[in-house]
Each structure stands twice: as structure tokens, then as C-alpha cells.
Amino acid sequence: MNKRVPLAAHTEDFPVLAQSINGAPLAYLDNAATTQMPLGVLDAMRTFDTHDRANIHRGVHTLSQRATDDFEAARARLKTFIGAGAQHELVFTSGTTEALNLVAQGVSLAGHDAALLKAGDEIIVSGLEHHANLVPWQLAARRSGAALRYLMPDAEGRLHVDDLKRLLSPRTRVFAVTACANATGERPPFEAMLTLAREAGALTVLDAAQAVSHEVPDVSVLDCDFIAFSGHKMYGPMGIGVLAGRRAALERLVPMRLGGDMVQWVTLERAEFADLPARLEGGTPNVAGAVGIAVAADYIDAIGRGAIDAHVTALRAHAAESLGRLDGITVLAPHAAASAIVSFVAQDVHPHDIGTLLDEQGVAVRTGHHCAQPLLDHLGLGPTTRASFAIYNTHDEVERLVAGVARAMKVLR
Given pLDDT bands bounded at 50, 70 and 90, which one contains residue 109? Predict the structure, then answer.
């Protein structure tokens, strides 16, 4: 087992954790779906809503000016968080799903310029993807006539750079890949893959939703045109997310939301779109959410990215090793050390039953296909049980998970 890295559990910062479930202390191990929010994030959002709440950019009154300042300060903070420079821009979205849809629709719709995708072009998507980084590309391919090609993992769930080399061609226009597979915890060599794809002339898209809470991608060193992530995966609020990337790439997207604040002028016949980032932020934004996600970034950096990463990967290693010793349990991607996710299948036992019995003991996990059904079908495993870790989880909770799974296997088999 890897050496356990000590880190204060920080449970006092997360009021939702101070409760019992079915008479047992809550062990919340569903962080790949949604992390909990610390008091600092909750307080910042409450302060905005009780002090500065107003619509942004459009008002001359004091509250509108304050709200605008809060919103743009949050944008600046998050740009710093991911290493964005002058050549980058950051757009607020409702989450990773909207951000990835914005890219896929934005490159496949004809707007002020010709569509970037056309018949005969190729899109490469990895076989590790969440549905949010697959289904939009399926639609983009159908809409444009482009061919959708797949970079599939091997039998252990790994992606290989040489396989991507063989897929890339002069017709490749887009390469989309995850920074961490939400269903298995696999961490592909995305840095090298993004570089290869960009050198081939493709636009590169990184789904960083599962990495941003502990392995924050640095866009200043990545060959990445677009990066997407969500607040609720990084100790921030639901309903807010980010699409960031190179300004030159973002400027080529056709806006998906048309309406207020994304235009320079409008007549009855036509409209002129505003400059970035407003052009891609039509409608009233989630300003409180932007404030919250920025404070979540502060929280991560105050604790230390390296400390968080060491802590959650140690928990994952502990869980993967201990679960793997149980009779009838198969851990997916046991080699995936750079992850906060452990997913497993149980022989002759449905994951929903395991999840229900764990919940009876206060242990919260996720069960099912995890919005990655093609990957699990490819691996031939079906639905799984998934535990995922955050800064407030402990090795004692890992032991509770393992004991609970062992009990469930005994009862159900």
C-alpha cells in the first residue's frame, strides 16, 4: 500500500458532513458526482445575495456595479487558478456539460463564418468519456457530415499515445479527451495526446471535471484550445462552470445562447455579437455561483494542491488495495494511482444492492454506469459501484467502505 499522507480532514469546514445517516456518521464518498461546499464558499455566496445582488453590466446603480465587480473578479481569479494568460479567455457556463456542448455546437453550426466542421472531416473522441463529451460530438458529426472516430482503451482501460498517432490524419479537426475517466479513475496521458493532436492541426478539447479538485490543469503549458470544468466538482456550487481556452479558438465558436448582453447592437433584421467573453454568455448569469467557485479555488490553494492530491490518491490506493482483496470483487483500473476514484464490480451482486446496504451504514457511494456506458460496455463489466474521495475523507472511512462491501457480499451472496 502507498504510504498514507497525513492531511487534516477539514470536516469542520463542511457543515453537511456533521450528520448521521441511518444512525451512523456520514461517510460521504460520492465526490466524483458532487463535492460538498465549505463554509467560506457558503458565506461568500450568502454575502453576495444579501449585499450585492443585482444584474450585471447593465445598470448604473451601486448594486449593479458591485455585482459586476464581483463577477469579473471571479473570472480573473479563475483565470489565475488555471494559469490562463493574455492569449486565453474564460467563459462562465452552467457546468462542464454546457461548456462541452458550447464547443461541439459552436464548431458544427454555420454562423457569422463557415462552420468549422464539414463533410469529410474527422472528430476523434476517446472511449473513456463521460456522455457529456461524447453525445455532443455525435450530434456535431451528424449535423456536419464529419466522421466520428474513437480512441479506444485497452482491456485494462488505458489509452495509448501510439493509438492516437495512428488515428490522426490531415482530416482531423477535433480531438476531445478527459483528464480523468469518471467511471474508472483512469488518468490518460492527455498532455502528450493534446500536443500530438494540435500538431496535426486539430482543435483540442479537455474535460477537466474530475481533475480540477486536486490536479488542476495548467493551460499555460497545455496544447489545449478548450478546457471545461464544473464548480460542484471542486468544493463549489452547482449550476456554475467554466469553458476556458485560447481566445483565437473561442472566437471561432458560434454562440449557443442568443439574447441579452451578448450583442453590441440589434436591429429588426440582424445583430452584431459582442466581443469575448460576453459573446458566449448570453442571458443573466449565475453571479452568486461565480463568486462561489472563485472562493472554492481560493480554498483549494489555501490547503495546497499538492497536499490535496497526495491525500486523495492515498485514499484511493488504500481503497483499491483493500477492496481488491475481497472475494468476488474486481477493481477497475487498479493501476490508476493518480486518481481520487475507485470503481468496482461484484460477482453475482448488483451495485444498487451494494449501494443500498452501504447507505444503511451511513456510507454514500455512486452506483450504475456513471454516464459512461460505452466505456463500461467496452470493458465488458456492466454497472459498477464507485467511491470517490475529497479532502474531508479519511482512512477510517475507507475501512468503513471496505467492511460495508464485505458485509454486503456476505448478505447478498
Answer: confident
Cell of 241: 462552470
Going from N- to C-terminal start, the domains of the chain cover: 11-30+304-412, 41-301
Per-residue pLDDT tens for 170-183? 999 999 999 999 99
Residue 2: is its pLDDT beyond 50? no
The answer to whether 89 touches 318, Cβ cutoff 8 Å, is: no
Instruction: Find how far residue 265's CA is from the centre of its chain.
Output: 35
Catalytic residue among 263, 371, 403, 412: 371
Whether the per-residue pLDDT at 324 is higher than 90: the answer is: yes
| CATH class for the domain made up of 41-301 | alpha beta
Torsions phi, psi of 144, nearest 5?
A: -95, -20
Side by side, the strands of the sheet bearing 203-207 are 88-93, 241-246, 226-230, 203-207, 172-178, 122-126, 147-151
The total of other beta-carbon atoms located within 10 Å of residue 369's CB is 17
**371 carries an active-site annotation:** yes
pTM over 0.90: yes
Largest separation between any pair of C-alpha atoms in the chain: 70
Q: Is residue 348 over pLDDT 50? A: yes
The yes/no answer on whether domain 11-30+304-412 falls in CATH 3.90.1150.10 is yes
φ, ψ dihedrals at 54, nearest 5°: -170, 165
SS3 42: helix
Sign of the alpha-carbon dihedral angle for 86, 87, 90, 95: negative
207 forms bridges with which residues in the sheet? 178, 228
Mean pLDDT of the chain: 95
